[in-house]
Write a structure and sequence with these properties.
Elements: E1 3-7, H1 15-26, E2 30-34, H2 46-56, H3 58-69, E3 77-81, H4 83-94, E4 100-104, E5 124-129, H5 137-149, E6 154-159, H6 177-196
Parallel strand pairs: 1-2, 1-3, 3-4, 4-5, 5-6
Length: 197
């Protein structure tokens, strides 16, 4: 089965995020949770969460993500929610040995992940809601092009949801059950294929 480094969103380790880790573990995968905020309680709203990220600094968060996986085997699937998706893309692109990238609720600007190329043979999936206020079609296209230029596959999945973290059942204003279940089916299929390769 796959070994996954899973990185949370700006909100931190919400109940929905930990439920996602539990779901992947129940499917037989090994999940390493990357806690960027040193055990701090998750936040409920994006304004204070963005302020926390700004106070810590992006460079520091990148360093924390790298440090968190340093002792793990290189053959990881990197998965992340929103902010965690951007960090996962950077790790998959720059840390040798990656087996895949699962970018949930976010697709970073290709230039922002600090890589001008993508490693061959590292497939990726991008999952985003069509109504996500943070959705940037140009970034999705650019990142997909960077990944495909290496010969790796990059599947982009759009969902008819309006919430940003639409898989997080602990956020009823954003959660979309049908879209969430479809996303997890696709994620588990991706991990099965990675494991088979």
């Amino acid at each position: 089965m796959a070994e996954i480094a899973l990185i949370h969103s700006v909100l931190g380790m919400t109940p929905g995020f930990t439920a996602a880790a539990d779901r992947l573990t129940a499917a037989g995968h090994t999940v390493h949770i990357v806690d960027l905020f040193d055990g701090a309680a998750p936040l409920d709203s994006y304004g204070p969460a963005a302020e926390r990220v700004q106070k810590i600094g992006v460079a520091e968060l990148v360093g924390r993500a790298r440090a968190a996986v340093q002792s793990l085997p290189p053959e990881l699937v990197y998965g992340g929610f929103s902010l965690g998706a951007a960090l996962s893309a950077g790790l998959a692109a720059r840390r040798p040995g990656a087996r895949g990238a699962l970018l949930l609720h976010g697709a970073p600007n290709a230039a922002s992940i600090g890589a001008t190329s993508w490693p061959a043979g590292v497939p990726a999936q991008i999952h985003m809601a069509l109504g996500d206020p943070g959705r940037n079609p140009e970034w999705i296209e650019d990142l997909g092009s960077l990944i495909r230029a290496s010969g790796s596959t990059c599947d982009v999945f759009d969902y008819p949801a309006s919430g940003h973290l639409f898989t997080d059942a602990s956020r009823p204003d954003e959660y979309d059950e049908a879209s969430a279940e479809l996303l997890w089916k696709r994620v588990l299929d991706f991990l099965r294929d990675v494991d088979a390769s």
